[in-house]
Amino acid sequence: MNKKQTINYLHQLKAYGQHYHDDIVSPCTTKAPTIPTDMTNIEELNDTISHCYMCELHKQSKHSYVPPRNIDAKIMFIDDFAANHSDPYIGQSGKMLENICQNVLKLDKTQVYITYIIRCPIVDGSAITTAQIDMCSHYLQREIDMINPAVVVCFENKISSRLNLKLDNTKLIATHSPSYLLRNPSKKSKTMEDMKKAYAILTER
């Protein structure tokens, strides 16, 4: 039976009162995710994120980015989204970030916490909606609260420009991302100055 014959057969069954399946209700919503207020374990949060179905992004992702387990890190980097799930230090931009950590911040990469606003893997962030950013930001906010870093370095990109975070005892530094610096090497001096500010905050705490 070919596709056309199959469709005709299904239409005939429907005419006889047969139903193929129950109505499917999409789990996607525009409401902010509900995170238990007593959740203090970062692994529980990551598990909640990995099973998130709050927006359409989950349909194109098999798994979400899980940060390295350096939960005692005093500095957190926030990028727009993960181009690679497992290792943020791969590629030219990853090597540049590793060099910044070692040469400017005087830290090994295992002492740095890296996370993303959008945890589902995506190719292009230009289509991300404000509603999706708002939903993901609830996870990010709880993540910051749990890690409680001395300084948060947020890379200035299309998505981060629409981000609204509440930081109490944490300093925020916005700077260019390594991928941006690869395209615009003349901007490196500004980022280096920002990283020196981050280093000063780390040494004070």
Explain what this protein looks like in three dimensions.
The chain is of the alpha/beta class and 205 residues long. It has a single domain (41-204), classed as Uracil-DNA glycosylase-like domain (Uracil-DNA Glycosylase, subunit E), CATH 3.40.470. Helices cover 37% and strands 12% of the residues. The chain is built from six helices and four strands, in the order ααβαβαββαα. It has a four-stranded parallel beta sheet with strand order 2-1-3-4, sandwiched between helices. The longest helix is centred in the C-terminal third of the chain and has 18 residues, at 130-147.
In short:
It is globular and about 75 Å long. It is of the alpha/beta class and 205 residues long.
Strands ordered across the widest β-sheet: 2-1-3-4
Overall 3D shape: globular
Q: Return residue spans where pLDDT drops below 50 for at least 5 consecutive residues.
A: 22-28
CATH fold-level topology: Uracil-DNA Glycosylase, subunit E
Total domain units: 1
CATH architecture: 3-Layer(aba) Sandwich
CATH class: Alpha Beta
First-residue to last-residue Cα separation: 72 Å
Strand percentage: 5-15%
Oligomer: single chain
CATH superfamily: Uracil-DNA glycosylase-like domain
SSE order and pairing:
Elements: H1 3-15, H2 42-50, E1 75-81, H3 91-103, E2 112-118, H4 130-147, E3 151-155, E4 171-175, H5 178-183, H6 188-204
Parallel strand pairs: 1-2, 1-3, 3-4
Descriptive terms for the model:
205 residues, alpha/beta, Uracil-DNA Glycosylase, subunit E, four-stranded parallel β-sheet, 6 helices, 37% helix, 12% strand, globular
